[in-house]
Design goal:
single chain; alpha+beta; nine-stranded antiparallel β-sheet; three-stranded mixed β-sheet; about 25% helix; about 30% strand
């Protein structure tokens, strides 16, 4: 059978002493009834709303630190130092990109990531984890600007880049609070929106799976990320004929990484999206040639006798409008890339 080729794109004693001092002072206070009152400490007023989680200057320092780690990894084509400033999909994707770069002998270098910001979306919160968004300038290679997702797990942890996504063509970011003020964070089940942030992610994966046949399709405006996913799926399936089948499944993260309120009462929702694609032979005796990149991810196998499975890590950023606005959910940015492979 002809081989099917698949390519990818203070202590208790101390307190007792203090009490004794206070009691001894009482008679003195009585004898000095006309003495000037002692000054009382006045605590600072508690702000009505939490301050922004990070200042603009701090955000810029975070970007510089992340950029430095990424640049060092890119030069060495080595992911060993990345966990210092990368996590989540960003770490998985960048690590796989180094594998791809090596497998293609430099023919497929890592994605160019700009770290010069044109807009900051900073959370207004006094809790952790904290997540801020950075809309970058356009890269020198004229690719789309990126939305970088930066996350701090705790007060003693550094900010790490959790993920990035390409801003889609024609997209205008919805207005958000100035970074000096901060944008309110919303719970995954926050009401007052067309749908909750968590529902936005799960419903969008259903739309990716079923297209216009999804019962949720009418709630989402057409977007270039979905179009690209559907086109890639069709391109992969067409040449297989009867020799193999192609199945794809999509899964959203258990809850959004962050939802930040917009000026109009909507929300920018960021979530993780994973895609699993499997090419399976329909008849025994055939084989699938596994190209070098997938081979390295799959432990060195060069052919598959039954199936080849690829796993894509992804990030999606969407705008969920306020309830009653009559608007649809709009996907603002998206990214997915192969992070793993297996053969059978």
């Amino acid at each position: 059978m002809t081989a099917t080729r698949v390519r990818a794109r203070t202590t208790a004693p101390r307190r007792a002493t203090v009490r004794g001092l206070v009691l001894a002072a009482v008679p003195l206070a009585v004898l000095a009834g006309c003495a000037t009152p002692l000054p009382q400490a006045t605590p600072e007023p508690v702000p009505a709303v939490p301050p922004p989680a990070v200042s603009v200057a701090q955000s810029q320092r975070v970007l510089d630190a992340v950029a430095e780690v990424v640049a060092a990894g890119d030069v060495a084509n080595d992911a060993a130092g990345l966990p210092a400033r990368l996590e989540g999909p960003a770490l998985a994707i960048r690590t796989a990109e180094y594998v791809r770069n090596a497998a293609t002998e430099g023919g497929r270098p890592p994605t160019v990531l700009p770290f010069e910001e044109q807009a900051l979306i900073v959370p207004e919160t006094d809790a952790w984890p904290r997540t801020q968004l950075v809309v970058t300038e356009q890269p020198d290679d004229l690719q789309a600007p990126r939305i970088l997702v930066l996350r701090q797990d705790g007060p003693r942890d550094p900010y790490r880049m959790w993920g990035w996504a390409r801003l889609l063509p024609g997209v205008t970011m919805p207005p958000t609070a100035a970074p000096e003020v901060g944008s309110p964070t919303l719970a995954p089940d926050a009401e007052g929106l067309l749908m909750t942030p968590a529902e936005a992610l799960t419903q969008y994966t259903d739309v990716l799976t079923h297209g216009d046949g999804s019962s949720f399709a009418g709630s989402f405006a057409p977007d270039a990320f979905r179009t690209a996913v559907e086109s890639e799926r069709a391109e992969r399936a067409t040449p297989l004929g009867d020799a193999a089948t192609l199945t794809q499944s999509y899964q959203a993260g258990a809850e959004p990484v962050v939802a930040l309120q917009t000026v109009d009462g909507g929300a920018i929702v960021v979530g993780e999206l994973s895609t699993t694609t499997t090419f399976a032979l329909t008849e025994p005796g055939g084989k699938i040639d596994v190209e070098p990149f997938y081979s390295r991810l799959a432990g060195g196998a060069t052919t598959a006798g039954t199936s080849l499975t690829r796993v894509f890590g992804g990030v999606v950023v969407m705008y969920v409008p306020p309830a009653g606005s009559g608007a649809q959910v709009q996907v603002l940015a998206g990214e997915q890339a192969v992070t793993g492979a297996s053969v059978q």
